[in-house]
Amino acid sequence: MTRAGQTSPKALRGTAALLLLLTCADALHHGISAPLVAAAFAAVIAVGERVRVTLPGDREQAPIGTAVALAYALLGPLHGLPTTHGVSQVVAVAGIGTLAGLAPLRSRRRHRRCRPEPGRVDGAVRRLLTVGFAALLFQPLYNSGALDQLPLAGPAYGVFLTGVAALAALCDATLAAVQRRARNGLRFAAALEDELRSLLGIGSAIVATGMLISLLAGEVGLWALPLFCAPLLLAQAAFRRAAAVRATTGQTIETLARATEVAGYTPPGHARRVADTACALGRELGLGSRDLALLEYAALMHDIGQLSLVEPVPDGATALLPQPEQQRIARLGSEVISRTGVPGQVAGQVARLADPCHGPDGCADRTLPLAARIIRVANAFDDLSAAARRRGLTEQAGRQEVFELLRAERGRLYDPGVLDALARSATVVVRPD
């Protein structure tokens, strides 16, 4: 991870903290506009922070808190009367509500207060900066009367709010990509693609709810908060249930992957080491979180076909077998995986992981999945490293020998791009069984 990647989260936290301090001071200096309304929005934001949901890819989301904070940033008239709160009060209210939701809870077991996890803090920082950005786009235009001079009556006003909300969503996706790049080592383009894709899910529900609350508050006042937060709470419960299903799938795959170790077909920890190496290579090659999850599943289960063998492969090292035997084991494993309910792409990746990189005509096989090429290199790396350790070679000597053996088959058995990624990756080391 680069130094810039390490400092980005700290810079964002510092910016958010400074922004919150300045806006709170400004709001106190000029007085709180409609304090009861501000308190109501802050209270719902705090509740929303308490009922966060973790989405695939370890994304922390606070749908209710984010939607309500966005609604406050885009709030124009309230119950038919114009509001006068500005950017500073929006950021202050959102920040105070977020801090109240992040306030550490007392541990039941140890009877002490627990600090919020870094991921929760980063999510709160991102949401605060996004709300501040949305308020900066809307509040000055509304409070100055500039919107009254524009033809924004009726549907046009809704279109304007949609544009502001869309820009705020893009801001949130960009900040989330910066944070994920620093935390997980993903390339920024891949992280941004993942975040933009997530907008089609719960992100669109958050933006739509925030807009509806701000629009309907002009007619029904604060009743818009419970009226539109309830459906979002139900949607959040559905997303949480889906996340639980994915977690169960992951646990099932982990258990199946250990079957070859328990049966004595592969060395202890082999599947996990191959999966870790494959994911490191996938990140180096720019895969997004969804592709990385499928890659991890396939890497964990890449040796499941060995269970159909009468005699175990010596030391479980399939990389040392003849090519046809490797392909046969891969096909057998794919058939087993296809009957487990695992996503179909995983079975397809395992089926092709022993295929050569070039077709019979000598041209690169473009139908060979990148995941299959990655797993083949990761598996060979672990098998050859284990063989080097059994011969008593030091880590440095073993690593050098492994890379020489892999480069000898560069372009024929092993993809050149994946080998280059292996050489660049600092997270791949020769580890003991």
From TrEMBL:
Which top-rank group of organisms is this from?
A: Bacteria
Q: Which UniProt keywords apply?
A: Membrane, Transmembrane, Transmembrane helix
> Which PROSITE patterns does its entry note?
HD_GYP
- Give the signal peptide as a residue range, or say none if absent: none
Do you know which SUPFAM superfamilies this protein is assigned to? HD-domain/PDEase-like (SSF109604)
Could you list the residue ranges that cross the membrane? 86-103, 124-142, 154-178, 199-217
Among InterPro entries, the record links this protein to:
Cyclic_di-GMP/3'3'-cGAMP_PDE (IPR052020), HD/PDEase_dom (IPR003607), HD_GYP_dom (IPR037522)
Query: What residues does the HD-GYP domain cover?
Result: 245-433
Q: Which Pfam families match?
A: HD_5
Q: What is this protein called?
A: HD-GYP domain-containing protein
Organism expressing this protein natively: Kitasatospora gansuensis
What lineage does UniProt assign to this protein's organism? Answer: Bacteria, Bacillati, Actinomycetota, Actinomycetes, Kitasatosporales
